[in-house]
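Practice set, problem 2.
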Amino acid sequence: MTIKRIDTYQDNRFSQNVLYQHGCFLADEVPYEVEIISHSEAVIRGADPENYPAIIEDFRFYTPHITRFYDENRCIVKEFTARQILTLQLNQIQPSQFYVDEDKIAAISSFIQEPDDIIIQVLPHQDRYISLDGHTRLYYAAMKGWQSVRAVTETADNWVYSFVEEARKRNVHTPKDLMLVSHKEYVEKWYRFCDDFFARAKDK
């Protein structure tokens, strides 16, 4: 089975709320949704329940703090051990990215209402934490004047340290330093950087 995560915010095969959450997937071109309903729970829906476990596994790559999944009848589909969730000050977090897409800011503002709604993945490093994802949410927290967010710790490949080094060269040391750009600029600048970086790494 081929699973593809939908990264756009416009697709009439899915509900708008779940598109904003990035919880939409195609499994062999058939639509499935994973809708977050609390800080640790989600509802999964789609044509074939036998495909749910594989979709949940893919979904949890991005959201490991979601540990209980229900079907539409509120029956438990799958449950995982609860993760320890930290509360971190924004100034404790070193981004591993430089740009934020303004379209993504507009999308997350529809479902993030308070600091506790933000749970990101981080890597402990030199008395601080490297953010491995959630840079849009972090920038949004800084925009709102919030002082802290929540996080779960994860491991990462060594390339993340090169991304951090590049971020620091660009004077990105905390989430408020991230650069807000249009969607077009984000695609051009961030995707180009990533493509060039991994192409060079492959050639070495």
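Problem 2, part (b): a different protein.
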Amino acid sequence: MIPKDLLKRIRQIELRTRRLVNESLSGAYHSVFKGQGMNFDEVREYQPGDDVRAIDWNVTARMNHPFIKKFVEERELTVMLMVDLSASGVFGSGTQTKRELAAEIASVLAFSAIRNSDKVGLILFTDEIEAYLPPRKGRRHVLRVIREILFFEPKRRGTNLSVPLEFLLKVTSHKSIAVLLSDFMAPLTPSLVRQCNRRHDLVAVQIEDRHEWELPQLGYLLVRDAETGHMMEINTGNERQRKNFATRRQQMATELEKLLAGAGVDRIRLRTDTSYSIALARFFEIRQNRRAHV
């Protein structure tokens, strides 16, 4: 049995995210993610303006006038959520941790998927695979996905971003929408990212906190790396140290941006202290415009 307070948190996330999906994102999801290909639908009589390449010559010969094959896009997709459960995810300087935000984003994508009759799968990882839920449909399955992201207790604390990508390539051969949710503080292997994006539609969701970019002026602080346990003293009152910190973070962000862009991978940047709805809507808008010009 799940404790009532945990059920309440899951239900709150469901209500918030389903409202957003129902009001604005479900249609956008449907329009920007393509199916596996085209399925044969029916044969109908040729009409002026139809593509002559679609003529069914066997039926045309039998009926003595032209007929064409009609195809429809195969809509059923699989959304694979790959969620980083390393120890850095428990950080959050406001009311929400990075892991809690990851659960909300996963919820939005999962409810968008099942509203369009798609399947949702889950890969939880640290520096190893912690848990795997095979793709399924339905609200009950999505609620389990949210519960696992929020409350699963990982065995490890570190991060290896190659682990979920390699696992995804092994467990599914069909093209999927593969969403990698992480703070991306660990390195990525460019060749693996390119390989994964060739086989799947890979999307990177980078979840950050503002104090990972800017140190607060609080004097001397003793800080601990959540993943390694390493302790370090930082003088946050020193302006040079704060600038150096911000510069290093910006360099990391620039390198990640170049790597993902070079592999053709879209990135969504989210922060724990700002609303994610605008960023998600902008992501769908950009992809929709791109698809319209293909």
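Answer key, part (b): The first strand starts at residue 38 and ends at 45. Helices lie at 4-32, 57-63, 98-115, 139-151, 162-171, 190-199, 239-262, 277-292.
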